[in-house]
Amino acid sequence: MTNRKNILIIGAGLAGSSIAHRLIQQNQNVKIIDKGENFATSVAAGMVNPMVFRRMNKSWRLDEFIFEAKAFYSELEETLKTKLLHEITIRRLFSSEQERKSWLEKQSFSEFENYLTPISAEDEKYECAKNNFGSGRVKNAFWIDSSKFYDSNLAYFKEKGILLKETFSTDDFNPEEGIYKGEKYDQIVFCCGYLNKEIPFFSSLPVQQTKGQLLTLKSNQIPDNESLNRKCFVLPLGNGTFKVGATYEWNNTNLEVTTEGRNLLLQNLSVLGDFKLEVLDQNSGIRPTTPDRRPIMGQHPEFSKLHVFNGLGTKGYMTAPTLSREFVTFLIDGKALNLEVSNERFN
Prior knowledge:
single chain; alpha+beta; 3 domains; 6-stranded mixed beta sheet
């Protein structure tokens, strides 16, 4: 039987919440600090796309991540008593003849059969959006209601009496002893997203701050049975409303929405069609990304009780379930992390 440990998690976003649920499943003593404001997890579109369209490749570790993610969120729905996971087909409108040929080549490979639907005559002649080079449909895609994910987790942790709604204070923390506000912890995990630079213990790690803006709009001309994708994604929310995203603004922590961001998203959407629409809302968030597009997980080189789990980036909702399980195995059982995700790769 696993030894019970007192574990403090800083941040209840996607990373921190995923770890917390894994630890609770293992009957660990968990406490979570979160200030109740989240500008990544709660404002993200929550899209899980198995493919990287630019080179028509599968996402990193896709076969491991995608099915465990579905199982994780389905189980979480039971725990939180709310609907989170929504399956959807992604229709990629090809941007060139070369992209179309690449899809045709990949769809014949067995490793892609769970993700690429063979192109049909209807896909070639698809008429609900601009379709100069044909289109293809991606299977096993889904989206997570990110705002509901964050709010429901906070409510759940509060009900269990394990949530401290406050800003983490380094003045009240002894990193060597693992003591925070007089309470001693065996492990402390920092899941601070784009605010990682404000945590002195892990501020040297290259967690980048990548702003993204999204639009919520209403239209009776955009198809609502699929998610269209080219230059942007269009996510149907129901009742003729859609999310359109997203911008990538590197090293930008300004959370204000901009006219430039709005215009860029509408311009990108126009590549798909000249739809009549009404913009209902615009919001922004800041993604914690990394130079090599891999998360950062591991132990502090000096203070053995301190750990980091961060940098989930744009694929976070797909990767978090598996990576949180691997991280907890490392944390509790001491199983080594793969160097591909370990913070040791930056030492």
